[in-house]
Amino acid sequence: QQQVKQSPQSLIVQKGGISIINCAYENTAFDYFPWYQQFPGKGPALLIAIRPDVSEKKEGRFTISFNKSAKQFSLHIMDSQPGDSATYFCAAWEGTGRRALTFGSGTRLQVQP
Amino acid sequence: EAGVAQSPRYKIIEKRQSVAFWCNPISGHATLYWYQQILGQGPKLLIQFQNNGVVDDSQLPKDRFSAERLKGVDSTLKIQPAKLEDSAVYLCASSLGGGLGRKNEQFFGPGTRLTVL
After folding, report:
1. What pairing do the DSSP bridges indicate for beta strands B10-13 and B112-116?
2. Are A39 and A102 in contact, with CB atoms under 8 Å apart?
């Protein structure tokens, strides 16, 4: 059962452009939504995260937008750079019950110079 | 600060053989996780330890997979016998605690890429 759906599967953006990755969830027990960045041959690394009581969180060029009623959240990368080329995963944490992370399927981002 | 260490980095085995992976978490991290990442998919939690006790192993195929964390530090994950569908990257992660938020951020190792022929 895919509890966190992520799109698109791949994304090509020009340097300086905006990259947008979308995720949707079904489980209302999720109460923390992190994004991870993974480079080839490396493990995922936490990029930015948001709790459902806020609609937006910004850290540098990275912004999470969160829509609780629609059960959707997205990652925006402003002024995308070639160094941002990586695979991005959204995830959701179930704070009660299982207390574990569920990951989306990933988006491979390529930023062209 | 040293990160999460894993070995080996790569392993190729025949189906029905056994294999073991090793993980050394960040010093002082009480919680340790093993994830399976199949090509093109996100990591899937297999098992979570809090110190040397199992917190969650609901998605661990217990007929062939086993894991232990002796003395609450290093951990090993074993597959016996391996199947073709076990081909994946096995990621180990650790965190200070098992909750959410930056203070309990999960730090991932580089993973072990397993190929089952």
Report:
1. parallel
2. no
Residue among A6, A43, A95 whose CB faces B91 most closely = A43
| Residue B22 in contact with partner chain A when CB distance is under 8 A | no
Q: Do A43 and B56 touch (CB under 8 A)?
A: no
In whole angstroms, give the CA distance from residue B33 to residue B44. Answer: 10
Candidates A28, A8, A106, A46; CA nearest to B44 is: A106
3-state secondary structure of A102: strand
* Cα B90 to chain centroid, rounded: 6
Q: Does B60 touch chain A (CB under 8 A)?
A: no
Distances (CA, A) of A95 to A53, A58, A63, A98, B105: 14, 23, 23, 7, 14
φ and ψ at residue B102, rounded to 5 degrees: -60, -35
Does A6 lie at the interface with B, CB-CB under 8 angstroms?
yes
Query: What's the longest Cα–Cα distance across chain B?
Result: 41
Chain B within 8 Å of A45 (Cβ-Cβ)?
yes
Contact yes or no for B93 and A91 at CB 8 A: no
**Per-residue model confidence as pLDDT tens digits over A12-57:** 999 999 999 999 999 888 989 999 999 999 999 999 999 989 999 9
